[in-house]
Amino acid sequence: MPDTLLAGIKILDLSRVLAGPYCTMLLGDYGAEVVKVEQPGTGDGTRQWGPPWIDRESAYFLSVNRNKRSLTLNLKTAVGQEILRKLARKADVFIEHFRFGTAKKMTTYYQTLSSENPGLIHCSISGDRKNSVEGK
């Protein structure tokens, strides 16, 4: 059954805007447990993309973030970083979609997270060809 192909797989989703949320939406559609981490105060920027709106929420945001649980974390604080580490200890995949400079920080996070969970898979989504591995 398609909705259970990824049952038992835990995804830690630090993606935003388009490619990352769409990717994790598909994983959730196939049964993965997806936990989306958003920025405090504003959340994912697509929460404000509208119209159309559904009960004051962006229809786009709701569509690409279905099948997910979400929370906000301030990753600039020790408390936020500790919560992220706790989530990552139980995750199978860590997915992020940030600008190049922020993605570099996420790689540092991944190195820390994977030291506590050696099986953690890191997926970095970037449209920045200039600074990508292939572009160098």
Kindly describe this structure.
The structure is a single chain. The chain is α/β, with parallel strands linked by helices and 136 residues long. Helix content is 35%, strand content 21%. It is built from four helices and seven strands, in the order βαβββαβαβαβ. It has helices at residues 19-29, 59-64, 78-90, 100-116, and strands spanning 10-14, 33-38, 53-54, 57-58, 68-72, 93-96, 121-124. It has a five-stranded parallel sheet with strand order 5-2-1-6-7, with helices on both faces. The protein has a two-stranded antiparallel ribbon with strand order 3-4. A hairpin with a 2-residue loop joins β3 and β4 (57-58). It is globular.
Summarize the structure.
35% of the residues lie in helices and 21% in strands. The protein is α/β, with parallel strands linked by helices and 136 residues long.
How are strands sequenced across the largest beta sheet? 5-2-1-6-7
Number of strands: 7
The helix content, as a percent range, equals 25-40%
Taken as a percent bin, the fraction of beta residues is: 15-25%
**Which regions are unreliable across 5 or more consecutive residues at pLDDT < 50?**
none
Distance between the termini: 42 Å
Helices and strands, in order, run as EHEEEHEHEHE
Structural class: alpha/beta
What overall form do the CA principal axes indicate?
globular
Biggest sheet overview: 5 strands, parallel
How many whole angstroms does the radius of gyration measure? 15 Å
Q: Averaged pLDDT, please?
A: 86
Number of helical stretches of at least 4 residues: 4
